Amino acid sequence: xxxxxxxxxxxxxxxxxxxxxxxxxxxxxxxxxxxxxxxxxxxxxxxxxxxxxxxxxxxxxxxxxxxxxxxxxxxxxxxxxxxxxxxxxxxxxxxxxxxxxxxxxxxxxxxxxxxxxxxxxxxxxxxxxxxxxxxxxxxxxxxxxxxxxxxxxxxxxxxxxxxxxxxxxxxxxxxxxxxxxxxxxxxxxxxxxxxxxxxxxxxxxxxxxxxxxxxxxxxxxxxxxxxxxxxxxxxxxxxxxxxxxxxxxxxxxxxxxxxxxxxxxxxxxxxxxxxxxxxxxxxxxxxxxxxxxxxxxxxxxxxxxxxxxxxxxxxxxxxxxxxxxxxxxxxxxxxxxxxxxxxxxxxxxxxxxxxxxxxxxxxxxxxxxxxxxxxxxxxxxxxxxx
Length: 386
Known about the structure:
- The protein is mostly helical.
- It contains 15 helices and no strands.
- Helix 1 runs parallel beside helix 3, helix 3 (56-78) packs antiparallel against helix 11 (249-276) and helix 7 runs antiparallel to helix 8 (168-198).
C-alpha cells in the first residue's frame, strides 16, 4: 500500500503540472483549434496516468476526477466556455476548479453553455429551464452531515464483512447502498474543501436523490450534480443546438438526452475498465441506455396523461431510487463482483485502518516514553538540587 501511495502522489504531481501548463497555454493562445491542439496531449495523458494505479479507491478517484471531469473542463476551455473560461482566475483557483469535482454557485460567466440563450439554462437530462435561484438553494452541506454518513458507511462495511450470513441479494443491495453513500460522502467532503479554498459558495454534489419525484428529476437535478453539469455543457447543449436545426426541438431533445446517456455510459465503462482491467461487457452501457429510454417513455406518458395532481415524494422517492438500484444490481454490479472489486476495496480500507492503528500506537508509545523520561530526568535534577 505504501508503494501505491507513492505512485499516487507521482501521478497527481504530473496532473498538477499538466494543469499548470494548460493555464499558461490559455493565457497565451485564443480559443479555438490551436488551443485545443495544445490541450490534446494533456487530455490523452489523463487517460494514461490512471493505468499506473492498482488501488480501487485511488484509481477510481483519479479516473473520475481527472480523466473524465478535468478533461471535459479543458475541452470547454479550449473553446472559451465552462468554469475555467474566466480569464481573471488565479492559478490556485484554476487548479482547484480543474481537479476538484465541484460546481460553483450559479454564475453566468462561468456556467454559460455553448448553446444559444434560449436553451442555455437547460438540464442535462430533461431539457427543462432551470431557475438560477435553484442553485443557491442546493448549498453544500456541513462536515457534520458527512460525518454522520461516514458512520453509516462504517455500519454498511461491517455488514459486508459478515456477507456469508446474509442472502446474496441483500449483500448486493448493501454494496449498492455503500457505493451511493460513499460517493455522496466523498464528493461532499471535496465540495467543502473546495468551498474553503475558493472562498466562495459551491453547490452540493447531491440534492437528496432519495426523494426524487421521477427518473427525470433523479438524473437531471438530484443525482451527482457535478457530472450532470459537465454533461450539460459538453454533450447535451451542443447536440441540442445542432440537431434542433435539422429535426426540430422535440426530436432534438430526445437525441440530446440519449447522446448524454451514451457519453455517460462510455465514461463509466472506462472507469469499470480501470477497476477490472478487462474488456467491457457493456452491462454499464445497457444500464444507462435503460435509464435514458425510461425517461423518454416517462416524458411521453406524462404528456399524454396530463394529470394536474402529483404523487407524493414519499412514494415516488423510494420507487425511483429502488428502480435505479435494482437495474444497477442486475446490469453493472455482477461484473464488479466477479472481479472482486468490492473485496479489493475492503482490503484497502483494512490496510488504511491498520496503518492508522499502528501509527496511533507508535505515537502513544513515543509520547509515553518521552514523558516518562522527562519525568525521571526532572525528578533526578530536583533530587540533586535538594
